[in-house]
Design goal:
With 408 residues, this protein is of the alpha+beta class. It is built from 15 helices and 4 strands. The longest helix has 58 residues.
């Protein structure tokens, strides 16, 4: 048996506290409820120091958690609400079983906000890096419509599919990045350690070197002498690029450039369309007005050009244009998307049609990623082979010439 300190609220609104012995926190909670008291906080008592064990972390608006932890919380909280557990009680249960200290602290703050009279959506707004506009808007809609259980289910499904999409893209990039890193590492090692050894050997012999060998040795000398400055210049370029990307015009130009890159641009468009359709479908299905949905969807696009196009779509829809016409006007959405939206508008099943569009483009993204990987892998291997082969040939040409000279 362990001792637990608790705080609770009676039916008449009066707050109370005390200590209780139980075999687990779940049994402690059950015993407190049997006393007709709603448990607010239950902490295990440290018998040695006679202090409550610190189980949460200080959190604020900038606190962030992993996507996976957010999905697990959303899914579990959805099950609790669906089972008829009150929100405060559900949060208490989630806090008690939560292992992530950051999330535990956030949930504790949310529970305190609700206890002080705030709604769940208002309490979530205090942590924008965890619960984005989409999350808050859907929860607010669920509170107004009395369908919080459905909303949390939709949110869990939505974030699971978005995370799956992210992992596809990241997974596809791992192998090419590793190959490129190995290629750069091999080149640097050859240039800074191997080539100088051959250069000293050729200099001691006094052999006449082929042009290719001379060029490689000159490049090796340049790298060894200026490697520090090269690294500084590279770091400065990265810093300037990031600084430029933070500016409104800079981000716009960079995003515009990415969309024009062959293969990559097409992949980015498909990812944006999949996210747009999935997000808007979830919002429409949850009862969020289409205009509010478009405003939030534009922020989740991940590309400034597409964001601007969706904001223009929002303005056109607010002026009376159908969503299909407004999307067609942007010239960014393929005819298939426009036709599906038209069908959805005519049949009143816009959310279902958008969901089908999202599923279709999820598969398209998967195919595009696989194709990109199949293109990059051989290209990088050929690049590595050409570079290393050129360096090897450049170093062995003089040796072959020396052998001929000796035989002659």
């Amino acid at each position: 048996m362990a001792a637990y300190r608790w705080r609770g609220k009676k039916r008449n609104g009066e707050y109370t506290k005390g200590e209780i012995e139980a075999q687990s926190s779940e049994q402690a909670l059950e015993a407190i409820r049997k006393m007709d008291i709603f448990p607010i906080d239950v902490k295990k008592k440290n018998d040695f120091l006679n202090l409550s064990i610190k189980s949460t972390k200080e959190v604020g608006p900038k606190t962030k958690i992993s996507d996976n932890n957010l999905i697990v919380f959303t899914r579990q909280f959805s099950s609790l609400v669906d089972s008829g557990v009150p929100i405060l009680q559900g949060l208490t249960i989630m806090i008690e079983q939560q292992k992530d200290m950051q999330l535990k602290g956030i949930l504790t703050k949310i529970r305190e906000g609700i206890e002080s009279g705030s709604s769940l959506s208002d309490s979530l707004k205090k942590f924008p890096r965890v619960f984005n506009d989409l999350y808050v808007s859907l929860v607010e809609s669920g509170e107004k419509g009395g369908v919080l259980d459905r909303v949390f289910k939709r949110l869990a499904v939505y974030f699971e599919k978005i995370l799956k999409l992210k992992r596809k893209i990241k997974g596809a990039m791992i192998y090419p990045i590793i190959v490129l890193a190995v290629a750069i590492g091999v080149i640097v090692i050859l240039m800074t350690f191997v080539i100088p050894v051959f250069a000293n050997l050729f200099a001691s012999v006094g052999a006449k070197l082929p042009a290719l060998t001379r060029d490689v040795i000159s490049f090796s000398d340049f790298m060894r002498e200026y490697i520090f400055y090269i690294l500084i210049a590279f770091a400065v370029l990265v810093f300037l690029f990031k600084t430029y990307g933070k500016r409104e015009s800079g981000r716009r130009n960079i995003d515009k450039l990415f969309l024009k890159i062959p293969v990559i641009g097409n992949l980015l468009k498909k990812v944006a369309i999949a996210r747009f359709a999935r997000t808007l479908s979830t919002m429409v299905e949850s009862g969020v007005p289409i205009l509010a949905g478009l405003g939030i969807v534009s922020k989740t696009s991940g590309n400034k050009i597409i964001e601007e196009a969706l904001l223009q779509t929002k303005e056109d829809v607010s002026s009376g244009s159908p969503l299909s016409s407004a999307l067609n006007k942007t010239k960014l959405f393929p005819p298939l998307v426009i036709q599906m939206v038209i069908v959805g508008e005519k049949t009143g099943n816009l959310d279902a049609m958008l969901n089908k569009v999202a599923d279709y483009y999820d598969e398209e993204v998967d195919n595009a990623v696989n194709n990109l990987t199949q293109m990059l892998e051989p290209a990088l291997i050929v690049f590595l082979g050409i570079v290393v082969g050129t360096l090897v040939v450049a170093m062995y040409l003089p040796i072959f010439n020396l052998g001929k000279a000796i035989k002659g």
